[in-house]
Amino acid sequence: MTKRRVVVTGLGMVSPVGNDVETSWQSIINGKSGIGELTRLNQEEFPAKAVAELKDFNIEDHIERKEARKMDRFTHYAIVASREAVKDSALDIASNADRIGVWIGSGIGGMETFEKQFETFQKRGYKRVSPFFVPMMIPDMAAGQVSIDLGAKGMNSCTVTACASGTNSIGDAFKVIQRGDADAMVTGGAEAPISQMAMAGFVANTALTLNDDVTKASRPFDKNRDGFVMGEGAGILILEELEHALARGAKIYAEITGYGSTGDAYHITAPAPGGEGGVRAMKQSLEDAGLKPEEIGYINAHGTSTAYNDKYETMAIKEVFGEHAYHLGISSTKSMTGHLLGAAGGVEAIFTVLALKNSVLPPTINLEEADPDCDLDYIPNTAREQQVQAALSNSLGFGGHNATIVFKKYE
């Protein structure tokens, strides 16, 4: 079967570093962090004080209040980012609705809704629970509501693979177009995890940083890293079959050429030793893209700022790329955005695409003291102007999920 070529024609984002793509990208290349003190919840209830919240975001600027109340926050983010992506792409969905689909992932879905409705149930009984409770909470509802909002009637799906959800969703949507089941897909990830139970759960499993200096709390690959910072938002891409895009004169950011997805079969939260599952995902993605390791110039790393992830991801990169690993530019934009869980892959795919298009590689900020186990080029603290022809974006999730996507400059 001939594989159809797939390109990126639109980008949309709401993130802790900006409520649109351009603002977010300028923050990233200037090393501006979106991480600050927890404001949405009572700080006194949690030892972790650092979070990456959206700033000055009001859903009523985008959706009528009555409709917005029927959706969880993660769906709000997905709709706003999707509208931006579609506008950016100038894609006319109505003229080809049956061939345009939506595939948006989320790791934990409507956790905030679950908490509020359970509190209502405890205090006032089942009759006062909202009839919208279930469709607000379930993780697929970002994809469902975006489909309704945009009128996209093609394949509609949601990948739930914890922190790999966004990257898996993009990869899965890529394959839908490549095999001919759609001409375009609205895809990425959305998450709104800054809620009481999500914070409590991640604190309980010791995943979050307890650093009191919130400005330096997310420090991937640094010797003094001690956990990740919770973030929120959505990153959405328009993927389109090449001939479909060319026929309508679409601008093309990059070409997506490879996808790898593997399971560790090892542990529910810890990565497999040596990043073995990540090794296979990266190798799969390169093989799918028809690229040699030395043709990759940049990696947007999963880079969570946790002890094992950063060490094992480094080991995995060395295993896949050999000596070339030391000549790669690698960065973790989570140093600025925090960890957006199921939305991370969507946001980081956009940063990877823009790095290719603009020939600027984002930095890893707060990298001050080198960890001997993390000895590659992580583009410390300052962005780098550098042309690269191809790049990877990695995402790894609880449950042993590993996902990698490959982007190339469009030629």
TrEMBL record:
<comment type="similarity">
    <text>Belongs to the thiolase-like superfamily. Beta-ketoacyl-ACP synthases family.</text>
</comment>
<dbReference type="GO" id="GO:0005829">
    <property type="term" value="C:cytosol"/>
</dbReference>
<keyword id="KW-0808">Transferase</keyword>
<dbReference type="Pfam" id="PF02801">
    <property type="entry name" value="Ketoacyl-synt_C"/>
</dbReference>
<protein>
    <recommendedName>
        <fullName>3-oxoacyl-[acyl-carrier-protein] synthase 2</fullName>
        <ecNumber>2.3.1.179</ecNumber>
    </recommendedName>
</protein>
<dbReference type="GO" id="GO:0004315">
    <property type="term" value="F:3-oxoacyl-[acyl-carrier-protein] synthase activity"/>
</dbReference>
<keyword id="KW-0443">Lipid metabolism</keyword>
<comment type="function">
    <text>Involved in the type II fatty acid elongation cycle. Catalyzes the elongation of a wide range of acyl-ACP by the addition of two carbons from malonyl-ACP to an acyl acceptor. Can efficiently catalyze the conversion of palmitoleoyl-ACP (cis-hexadec-9-enoyl-ACP) to cis-vaccenoyl-ACP (cis-octadec-11-enoyl-ACP), an essential step in the thermal regulation of fatty acid composition.</text>
</comment>
<comment type="pathway">
    <text>Lipid metabolism; fatty acid biosynthesis.</text>
</comment>
<dbReference type="InterPro" id="IPR014030">
    <property type="entry name" value="Ketoacyl_synth_N"/>
</dbReference>
<feature type="active site" description="For beta-ketoacyl synthase activity">
    <location>
        <position position="163"/>
    </location>
</feature>
<dbReference type="InterPro" id="IPR020841">
    <property type="entry name" value="PKS_Beta-ketoAc_synthase_dom"/>
</dbReference>
<feature type="domain" description="Ketosynthase family 3 (KS3)">
    <location>
        <begin position="3"/>
        <end position="409"/>
    </location>
</feature>
<keyword id="KW-0444">Lipid biosynthesis</keyword>
<keyword id="KW-0012">Acyltransferase</keyword>
<keyword id="KW-0276">Fatty acid metabolism</keyword>
<dbReference type="GO" id="GO:0006633">
    <property type="term" value="P:fatty acid biosynthetic process"/>
</dbReference>
<keyword id="KW-0275">Fatty acid biosynthesis</keyword>
<dbReference type="InterPro" id="IPR018201">
    <property type="entry name" value="Ketoacyl_synth_AS"/>
</dbReference>
<dbReference type="InterPro" id="IPR014031">
    <property type="entry name" value="Ketoacyl_synth_C"/>
</dbReference>
<dbReference type="InterPro" id="IPR000794">
    <property type="entry name" value="Beta-ketoacyl_synthase"/>
</dbReference>
<dbReference type="Pfam" id="PF00109">
    <property type="entry name" value="ketoacyl-synt"/>
</dbReference>
<dbReference type="InterPro" id="IPR017568">
    <property type="entry name" value="3-oxoacyl-ACP_synth-2"/>
</dbReference>
<dbReference type="InterPro" id="IPR016039">
    <property type="entry name" value="Thiolase-like"/>
</dbReference>
